[in-house]
Model the fold of this input.
Amino acid sequence: MTSPEALIDSTPYGAAGSGSGIDFDWAYGAFERRDRSLDGRFVGAVLTTGIYCKPSCPARRPRRENVVFYPDGQAARAAGFRACRRCLPDEVGRDRIAVERAVALLQEENAPRLEELAALVGYAPHHFQRLFKRETGLSPARYARERRAERARRALEATVNVTEAIYAAGYSAPSRFYAETGKELGMTPSAWRNGGANVEIHWDIAETSLAPMLLAATARGICRLSFNEDEADLRARFPHATLVRGGDHVAALREAAIAACDNPAEMPDLPLDVDGTAFQQAVWRELRRIPPGETRSYAEVAAAVGKPSAVRAAGSANGANNVAVLIPCHRVIRSDGTLGGYAYGLDIKRALLERESA
Done:
């Protein structure tokens, strides 16, 4: 989680409005779309009513010239404004502090269960479950599993013995390790460390209206969707996997993947087998939440996953996406409105966005 000060530092200075360093257009855009993910990052104060609100406040939106922005309620009160009784903006600060504390507790090897976690931060379990998921996009249990999975990845890269990685990652027993990392990592732990060893990957190349598409899948789902790549590129990513061209498994996914390229606004729900850190996975989930025909900036994606100062990291996570189109990294553009980069060329990115807008 990130403090309001970090948010201010991550946005342009010299903006209109409060003079606090918060970019006025960016903040007003959050108010217009009632962006709940930015609640607690700043408040908007209305000059005509003397009230300050959080971005997601359901009240009618004020005119642009009547709004100024402050990093928090304390700054707004110091300027003479009072808190909105409808959205209770000061309560958001308490909620975020609780979530931040919970996140720290869930980083530990022996992470507490929901009941204990909620008691430690002063909330009822069922209420805190909803609050935590609203702020992070994950349940506390899922967040803890992803933290362990991330530790497992690092441990598997650093050790030569899977048993050593079990305890280094914080698992209580080998059975727990294999049951959980098999789900989180997609492949078995040894296969993850050894570039796909003992994993069979079926693949094929299909002609699409965009470019030749490489589609590869494990038994769990699609692990690679790319353009203008071939078997050599796939082998470089999974040097020790058994690569099999064609087969019923990849054929069952092929037509739906082609259709997604032709009409990305109608995204099929296909099984994916992707790997990444907890932050990367959070970014990829956020990309799939962007409505077809809309775009977000790297800064907006970073803020949406609760890390507004991690704009560069969000860009890196976007670039690390192994499944084009289905995880729509093409919907992320620069803050100035230009397309930015794309692994398969701007012509393909532009075509995908045009098709979604149409």
Residues 200-262 form a domain with the Double Stranded RNA Binding Domain fold (CATH 3.30.160.70).
